[in-house]
Predict the structure.
Amino acid sequence: MTEPKVLEELEQVKNAALAELENVKDETELLTWRNTYLGKTSAVMKAFSSLGTLVPDQRPLVGQGANRVKTMLEAALTEKTNLLKESAMAHSLASQSLDVTLPGRVIPRGRLHPDTQILRELYRIFGDMGFQVYHSREVESDEYNFQLLNFPVGHPARDMQDTYFIDAPNRGDNPLLMRTHTSPGQIRAMREFSALNPSDPPPVRIIVPGMVYRYEQTDQRHETQFDQLEGLAVGERIRFSDLKGTLTEMARRLFGPNARTRFRASYFPFTEPSAEFDIQCFQCDGKGCGVCGGGWLEIGGSGMVHPNVLRNGGYDPTRYSGFAFGFGVQRIAMLKYGINDIRYFWDNDLRFLEQF
Amino acid sequence: MKAPISWLKDFVDIDLSISELAHLVTMAGMEVEEIRVIGLPMPETGSTSARVTGLAWDPNKIVAAAITEVMPHPNADRLTLCRLFDGQGERIVLTGAPNLFEYKGKGVLPVPLKVAYAKEGSVIYDGHQEGYVLTTLKRTKIRGVESDSMVCSEKELGISDEHESIMFLEPDVIPGTPLVDILGDAVLDLNLLPSYARCASMLGLAREIAAMTGKKLKLPTLPLTPQNGKAEFASIEITDPNLNPRFVLGLIRDIEIKPSPFKIQHRLKLAGMRPINNIVDATNYTMLEIGEPLHAFDYDVLKKRAGNKPVKIITRSAKDGETLITLDGVERKLDSGTILVCDEAGPLSIAGVMGGMESEVNENTRSVLLEGASWNMIHIRRTTRAQNLPSEASFRFTRGVHPAMAEKGVKRGLELMAAWAGGKIDPLLFDNYPLPPSAAEVEITPQDVKRSLGIDLSIEKIAEYLKQLEFSVKISGNTVKAIAPDHRLDIGEGTTGKADLVEEIARIYGYDNIPETRISDLLPIQRSNLRLVKEERTRDLLVSLGLQEVISYRWTTPEREGRRLPPGSEVDDKPYFRIANPLAYEKAFLRHSVLTSLLDTAERNSRRYPRLAFFEIGPVFLQSEDPSGLPDEQNRLAILLAGQRNLQGWQPADTGTMDFYDLKGILTSLLNGLNLDHAKFNAAKHPTFHPGKCAVITVEGQQIGVVGEIHPKVREAYDWGDTFKYPILAADLDMDLLIKLIPDLTKTADVPAFPAVVEDLALVLDETIPADRAVELIQQTGGKLLSSVRLFDVFRSEQLGAGKVSLAYRLTYQAMDRTLTDNEVSTLRNKIIKRLEYELGAKLRS
């Protein structure tokens, strides 16, 4: 049996179509090609519609042949379509590249004051050790700022804290003043807690953050208004060694796991024994440098709460003991962020604040 | 206090290096601020943070020498040439020192003058420059005469400020001896805290060093005479023993006033005191040595004042307005807080602070009445401050000197006077001691030490530590009974005394040796601090809305704060809390307003920034009714906004000027973030704000604050940057109230499972109707099925007509349990429209 002629013709059309497809450049040409070779009037489609005119035994043969050609052409079309899309995409991507070095759109950003940032860090550190934040007032009476903290009237220790007094008549030995330290918070907190159960007062573990005021000339390292953080732990088993452990823990959290502390004997009327605490300089690992001088950074004061202070807070010193500490928050911020002048903090110059 | 190490060695053997000693003393509570080296090799700084200053003397170049002849300079009257022997050979040295003039041209001196000679190449201080500047000596030629380097003044060697005269050495020094071997020393400059009064002397400091190093303290022995008693040369009347618990007098006759021995003068200089004469020096030396300030009177002056009567010393409070000319020549006006030492003719000296001019020891004095007394430290402190007369004596008396020291001081002082000035000491003292302090007696156990410090110490160790500090100690059973020594007043009784002893034990044991432990005590009940949580949440929200947090000084002036109220409007007549002793007027008043702090901040930054967006949370200080007299420290939240909405970049951006609605948007987002959803803004008048652009904010029926554009007149009161032409938007909120209103807990609504119907509704209304009113009616009428109303367009046009405004709202209808039907929605819509037409005369825009 000979091949029907129509199949031969289809074979030629197919070859011509494939050859022509090679040269198709874009989607328009592709559409024309598709109309020519797969459209209603194309040879392939005609072959289908002319099946009826063929002798019956040739019909399957031609039908299958036409189908094969159609499938091949359609596959070639799909392939070509994809090819064209990709090249169009590649072309368009190539034309769309940006100068990525141009600046991004400016979105005004808000910031927390560095003091708030460092305070929050301290809240976290002490919070993890069970110390809770307690707030106390900024304007105080002499009684709370000094007398109840074991600074009697006329005591020379008052010279250690140059005080801003408030004009207020007829107050005798109890003038109003700007608190010189956050320590009045010790008395206020102890009194508040011991009042809950005077015969069996609960243990205390608090930090008292807040502004304090000293009457002195300002310079790079001295401010008249600065933030202090006070700590107080009172209970039946609070020891000096716990004070050392707590502050060393703070130093490690602030300045890294190798931070070391040092405690020097000192004097504060409201603690006994009293100690200054230093942190080994993290810039020079204690070798001595421009930041620290002799390898240690002076941080703050601390000690075991004086029996009179415990008593003034409603805690019996024969049963309870406690430790307390206090330090300047700006001092920590200055060390952590390398700030050279304490006067930047409340000056609110955006050129400073924008760096945080 | 300045302590020469050589002097400390009188009382304790020290085999530590200078920096080890400084470190030891510092760690024990007596902070060494400076180590001043006098000739010795400069120490390693080691672990001490003390400043190291001073000068090392080259032992080969700076030596003792003998001047054998002082000759005139051929070409200069004010210069001399010294023939000098430096141990190796003869040199000719040129000098202008005035203290050599008296020897000029006298030929070979019968007794050579011993001086400090610095050879060529020596490094010393330049004596003729301000401050301490190092210089290296070169061979010089002055007015044609060559000089073999130079003889030194004290300043050139770093001993004192004396730079005119050259320093003479003791006559027995051997020429050629390195000067460092004769005078080499180091001076510790200590910052003594108020409780360390007992260490304010060489003996006191040596005692501490001995205790810490385990060495024996070499106590000075006092002379057998004079004996304590009731001498006849004078009597003492103490009017108030609380002011003057003890007064001791001694007498020395037939003294000769002259300079003190070389070594004494040298020690006084190193300790920071100026040598005067042998009598005054003896009082100062005693004070520096054992800690008791003394005062020397010219006895003949007192006798003259007493006339024929015996000399009687009276101590009493000054009368208000009483005067005394003190030995510095100043007439002092006194008040009743001052204690005076008087005789029957009137005041002689200000007790414990400064002597009087008339009875002062001078070159003609032949007999000295020596006072050693004990004073009430609080009165001395007050007088020192009132008269502005800080002195070495008042430094000690204001910290408390034990009355026992008065007798020791007088005995030691008289002994030194006799040694340096000759004379005869009266065999008896006059001692009036009406108020001896009781010696603190404290019991302490190893358990006490463990309880406070967390260390185990044996009872023997505790006793040993205390004994080293001269406590009398007795062990009985498990208890150490300790009696405080008679040179310290800082040991209390009972629990306080125990704490005092624990500190002493900790110091000697060494704070460094106490372990670091974690608190083992019961963890207190942990309470949430909701105030702090809410305050910090507010901060976070404002920061997320693009605002910079600022924190300002609390001080201001009424004038500066007054700028927030335009002239002609109401004034802030609430009284200010005022600082009684401000550094400056600008820092004298506690603020009433946080908003003004922000206006000040904005003013300062407006020169550099086209966009300002700040907030501050902090207190203001207002008068309160509280009987304590303390202010009401109300917390405020202030926000300030001004300038461009966005910063211009290289792409187009909305750089329009921020207005009322920018700030209102921030406030709405803030309140929304704080779960305060139903805030109302109602037009209001406030002098600080533009009359048409101001609102009060109400949350849950309570006014929390005010917001608006700053009144142009207020704006004018500030000095803005030249290009900063923007309106200032501000809000001032009551932070305490806000915190009260913020709910502790909030509820969350379910996410709807059914589709919503969204429709737009455009209304034409009279302009006078607040937009809020329409929304309120829509919400009320829409009820639960209306889930949101959003205004998305506002416009006015001629077509609408004058006084009319079109408001377009997007309404979302939503049911939680079903899909709403068209019928339900249109019924609701019609109800809403009817209500708006009826209540507001609104017309639907087609």
Notes: Chain A has two domains: 5-95, 114-353. Residues 59-95 of chain A form the longest helix (37 residues).
